[in-house]
């Protein structure tokens, strides 16, 4: 029966740690906006690279 108490205590401790990790957004408004713009710029670069690759493949396919 002692193991049951140990499990309960471990479960409570784990739930406290998870609750602490789940905290909301820690960034201020300016930091959040800068991060959002940074991620958007990265995605635009990826999209442009993918479009160039697709155009190159289409051009290579048209030549054959």
TrEMBL record:
The protein's matches in InterPro entries, at most eight in alphabetical order, are given as:
SERF-like_N (IPR007513)
Q: Which residue ranges have biased composition labelled Basic and acidic residues? A: 1-20
Q: Where is this region: Disordered?
A: 1-36
**Which Pfam families does the record cross-reference, listed alphabetically?**
SERF-like_N
Small EDRK-rich factor-like N-terminal domain ranges (all copies)? 1-34
What's the protein name?
Small EDRK-rich factor-like N-terminal domain-containing protein
Organism, scientific name: Friedmanniomyces simplex
Organism ancestry:
Eukaryota, Fungi, Dikarya, Ascomycota, Pezizomycotina
